[in-house]
């Protein structure tokens, strides 16, 4: 029941906004639906953690602790992002970038995007999961090209082609998986259902599952932004409207990694070897290294943080590759922390770009004098995302590195170097952008409180997680990972 | 049962107090700057409390623990105050009190809009340093450690509207982060041996669990190297020191004093905590002492040589900090060497001398940085060449700075002499070591120590002579005036600390001995500790002895005599004549010895330590100027090549980004084929 | 009821023939230069898919495959080619397709891919219980061939054709390996492909509007920073 509700809520929102999204007040409706979805997701997580996994919609929908955590995260970040986009779009409007048509398209697609992500998370059917992940691509492609500038059209095209190909490969993986599970579960509807697959996972044919996993990781890995499949990511993040960059980075990447993890569990049980772990570790490590090196030359602030997303998704992937209770816990925590912080950074960056009139770093100067509040938020965000304590990313990186030392010590030096480089570059750029001059602007521009509400909520949560990670939530995380079976190491 | 809080509780209260005051004060000061002095005095009261807590932790040694809810699941915040913490808390509280009182007067000179944030940063900085000393698990330690780095960065860039300040701050924070990552690595290796039985297995990160770890020799070496480099980056270990002479001078003076006087000591604390506390003396190898010892000696020499060439008084002091940290590292190296090769007494003495020097340095370096602040403030520039004659205009602070200068130069009866002398005594035990190499290494260290100490005296003659003596070289120096009352009190507090440390070495050593005992399980000789306050006998029965009080008394007697005797036995009474002016009628400030000329012989003799660029003017030049720039060779030989390497790598990474969809598709295709091939045929 | 042996053999021959035809058409797409011929080949692939689905449906007596066949007929033989032809017409696209790699080299690469796919799929085919189990290799090969086509061709429309070709190959694999995916998934996939094609269409107009050409070399130069 509740699963249907969580799907229907954004669906209704999408249809409604598709119809009347150009009217006044539609943006508020968007917020309403987003928060409604968030509320339902909270109810869902409560139900899941009190009474156990939920199934619904003729067994097509399913949520256990693992997916419930992602559902709440998605619901929450989508809600605050809708709040941010209200203010962002209002400013865009004053800049004259908006037509009612485009507003409608934006609002409707926003709800569609949230819908597809939620369906990915609560679908029991791995085929349906594929369908809605592809749907998420389709919804965001148009959003990336939303500004219709040549650069944005190019970026969207690249995004479409690369992710389209990737996702096609994942479909081949799904076919192979179906092919293998059909042997034990019999033909018909149940052979792709997670609940059924989970019970027979150890008797699936390893050769087929191994191949399937490779197709999955190359396919869904494209969406996660794993190097060398990441090429679409910086462009799509840089050229789309900033609220979309925030949800792409904070949510879609997570959702794609979630899909990989689901499949990893099946593959692990069937393969009885460390193939999946090694693949995830290799992809993760390469992503971290390349992303950190690529940051140095970035001149575009959104692109810079897009590369940071690649780095962090790489770290999370690496953590799940390491596995074990600490590694998996760290990976999940890292995804949570990254979602919160990176989306908030994009909120800040959105306003910085709007007040500076450019997203080129050399053109953004003196934020500290012009808009001191934004400078503060940007600095805090930069420190949080580069893993300085006491923010949540420090906690997760602490755990990831400690798991790395006990399981694969040789990965420590490259990881530490990458973290140092990331910190050095991001902090340098932020310092350049915020740095004041000798002649401060006489009257700095202060933003209305609403601007900062979503930003500080996110940073506050990240701080809270880093300092006082509640024991109960930790237990929930652990249970979720345990029930899915991700805590098994190599 | 007593109602009085135990030392750890007191310390935690101070921690909370400072943290709360930071926020509270920030908002109060935004309302009105009038609260500044009272707020700073309150912080100082916290400092006094902390010092007394540290002191009571040393006099009645106890190992106190507290677990505070928070942190990560399975890893709440652990606090602990053992003698090592107590010692450094005493150092922190004692030195911070003087600096804070000073700030109450000094901060009036800062532009008001920045005052609230400066106060916030100062209070947070103190709190985070205290947290570092009290933390008892790796996570909490790192939280405080990084907060400390971050807040101190913020202190450095208080005057952030200048490009050079931002750059210095950036360099500092980058190095600090580099160090932090290495420290993290050290902790991970310490914890990795612990079996992770519990759910997330995080209890391995308490210091207690880490202290029980039993790493193999190789891992122990790895841990030690990571800790040495990690904490060394904060302490200014060469070649990780380059940030220090950049960052310390650009910070406001009280901040420089906190950075140099106290924060550097937290690195010493960290190194001792990891090597002696967590790794344990049993896992150290005596041979590790040699590189540490030599590195310390080299640092001491290198630091003081560069100090001698500086004309910015704060830069001079910053380089001198490198020298002093070098001396402390030298002692630690000696201690490892002696203790692990079966000479515990000499080892304890070396380690004790190190600790002694650490607290000495905290007091006199803070005093001198504050003094440099008053000099710069008085003369309006940060160039020694524009100062001069300040003593006449600022007699009170001038005398206090003179005291600090005497102490830091290692002249008896200053406190610097005590620790350096003790260290030397320990070095002279080299004869008991077996192996020529070891012996010569120790003696080389001792030679470096003595050389550095002598040069340091020269450096501070320059500092004081050019700055305070002679005649003013600029209008600013001409118009200098004495500093405010709180500033004087603050400096006097620090001077009093120096005096106590100078005059009561035995009492101090008793306190240090509890630290040594808790770290290594052995003690200094009982005769040393029970010889009364008058005589210091570091290595009874036949070693040398020293009585600061008698020496001071003697000096007190002789100095007036020195002034008096010529008057009695001189041929005639004094007469005043014009200064001999090389035949010139008028004497001008330019005729005086300058900061540059003072360093010239050093530049000449130790040319290998510097990278100099001379510009000799051509006769045809319109405006001929002789220019000489001296650079730290590490920039040219280490940092720039490293940066170029990084840029090369970044350029290589850039080649992945062709911008062509076809190529990106090839990446996907290639990855797929590669993985399939590997899976199918391997 | 398993079909009798003779019928089984026939089925294998028929389905095998259709599979080879599909592979051949993938090669043709790799080699052909004219845009209109490419779309025709795509339509032909649709026909082949329909036939092979029909054949498998009849031989395996899986009734839901009949729906799939019908669906394929409507969707891939009629609807998509119609849309594509309309696009060609509207956007005035005709003439030669430029290739980044010359055709002979592409062919050699393609052959290599076919060999690779068959060796890779061999152990899987052993496991299959369907009447057309030998054809998983064909599906994989045409998937990778379409991928190769996307890499080597430069125009936006050829990339779309490559993409749709991949989809065809996926469909073919699903039919032959497992008698098709569950209905809900198949419908979902078809829906995605349909929406995707529309999005492609929207794109073409946007690209055309912004760059006045559909050549991908305009798309290649991302702002280089």
Q: What is the count of structural domains of chain A?
A: 3
Q: What structural class results from the helix and strand content of chain B?
A: mainly alpha
Indicate the multimeric state: heterotrimer
Strand content of chain B: under 5%
Rg of chain B (C-alpha, Å): 27 Å
- Please report the two chains with the greatest interface, counting residues with C-beta closer than 8 angstroms to the partner's C-beta: A-B, 69 and 59 residues
Q: What is the molecular shape of chain A?
A: globular
Number of strands of chain B: 4
**What sequence of helices (H) and strands (E) makes up the elements of chain A?**
HHEEHHHHHHHHHHHHHHHHH
Low-confidence stretches of chain A: none
* Major β-sheet annotation of chain A: 2 strands, antiparallel
Secondary structure tally: strands of chain A:
2
Number of helices of chain B: 25
Which strand order do you get reading across the main beta sheet of chain B?
1-2
Approximate helicity band of chain B: 55-70%
Q: Structural class of the secondary structure composition of chain A?
A: mainly alpha
Poorly predicted runs of 5 or more residues of chain B: 194-200
Average residue-wise pLDDT of chain B: 87
Order of helices and strands of chain B: HHEEHHHHHHHHHHHHHHHHHHHHHEEHH
Summarize the helices and strands and which ones pair or pack.
The complex is a heterotrimer of chains A (490), B (682) and C (225).
Chain A: H1 2-20, H2 26-51, E1 54-56, E2 61-63, H3 65-94, H4 100-122, H5 126-144, H6 150-185, H7 194-200, H8 206-224, H9 232-239, H10 242-271, H11 275-294, H12 301-322, H13 324-356, H14 367-370, H15 372-385, H16 392-407, H17 412-434, H18 449-468, H19 471-484
Antiparallel strand pairs in A: 1-2
Chain B: H1 7-31, H2 36-59, E1 64-72, E2 75-81, H3 83-106, H4 115-134, H5 138-156, H6 163-192, H7 207-211, H8 217-235, H9 244-250, H10 253-279, H11 289-309, H12 313-340, H13 344-379, H14 390-393, H15 395-408, H16 415-427, H17 436-468, H18 475-478, H19 485-503, H20 505-520, H21 526-529, H22 548-569, H23 595-605, E3 611-615, E4 627-631, H24 633-654, H25 661-681
Antiparallel strand pairs in B: 1-2, 3-4
Helix pairs in contact in B: 1-2, 1-4, 2-3, 3-4, 3-10, 3-13, 3-19, 3-20, 4-5, 4-10, 5-6, 5-10, 6-8, 6-9, 8-10, 9-10, 9-12, 10-12, 10-13, 11-12, 11-17, 12-13, 12-17, 13-15, 13-16, 13-19, 13-20, 15-17, 15-19, 16-17, 16-19
Chain C: H1 5-31, H2 35-60, H3 64-90, H4 103-127, H5 136-152, H6 156-178, H7 183-211, H8 217-220
Helix pairs in contact in C: 1-2, 1-5, 1-6, 2-3, 2-6, 3-7, 4-5, 5-6, 6-7
